[in-house]
Amino acid sequence: MTQTAPQDRAAFEARLRAIGDARYHDKHPFHRRLHSGGCSPDEVRAWVINRYYYQSRIPMKDAAFMSRVSDPALRRAWRKRIEDHDGTDAREGGIARWLRLAQAVGLDPDYVASERGVLPATRFAVDAYVRFVRDMPLLDAVASSLTELFAPKIHAERIEGLLRHYDFADDAALSYFRKRLTEAPEDVAFGLAWVLDHADTREKQDAAAAALEFKTDVLWAQLDALWSAYVEPARIPPGAWRPGEGLLERAA
Predict the structure, then answer these.
(1) Residue ranges of the alpha helices (H) in 105-198?
(2) Any idea where the domains of the chain sit in the sequence?
(3) Residue ranges of the Thiaminase-2/PQQC domain (predicted)?
(4) What is the rounded end-to-end Cα distance, in angstroms, of the chain?
(5) pLDDT digits (tens, 9 = 90+) for 27-65
(6) pTM recorded for the entire structure
(7) Which residues contact 234 (CB under 8 A, 6 or more apart)?
(8) Fold assignment, 9-251
(9) Of 34, 59, 184, 214, which is most buried with the most CB atoms under 10 A?
(10) CB-based contacts of 236: which residues, under 8 Å, 6+ apart?
(11) What does the pLDDT look like over 186-205, one tens digit per residue?
């Protein structure tokens, strides 16, 4: 049986972008609620707490990826992603900026960093992503990062919506999102080119597309968990954060 020919470069890139158009989590009702000012202070706090778990695992999944890479050039390019999130001796990273957001919404940053109160579904989804990047072929792992193709749009919408609707929002609180407006396009330009170069058969292209779909599922599942736990009718599972916990004294 003749194997299906691979798509040409432009068609395959269009296929990847279409996945974001259909499946990216900017279309989830929780984000629409957040960006339009519809979230209560506690719903915003729940989002910050649970999203922190995802942020904290990004450099861990990137380190797991790099441990399998034998090409020094690829390791050098990928190392930037860890520094962007962990920071360096000379500059602050994304995790520290996220904890500044936590403080702005009235949460104790130490409580958020402890990861107490994270929803079980958040842990399962994020940990599944780390395992995917650790265990799957390198092409699949890189392709799963391509949700960054669609991230600048949601960051811009988030900055605009939070500034318009929430008293806590200012340049310091939203510094994570402003920084990602420049970091994410740099990362995705490299990742997209790498995937387009290495997905040279239809089988590999299908695997890369499936990896990107998997990552959109990871992001969507986190918001489904937030909606179920904290938006009416709220059903907070045992052990998850409850309003009133982990607050700064001024917000208690």
Answers:
(1) 109-114, 120-135, 138-144, 151-165, 175-198
(2) 9-251
(3) 14-224
(4) 67
(5) 999 999 999 999 999 999 999 999 999 999 999 999 999
(6) 0.95
(7) none
(8) Heme Oxygenase; Chain A (1.20.910)
(9) 34
(10) 229, 230, 242
(11) 899 999 999 999 999 999 99
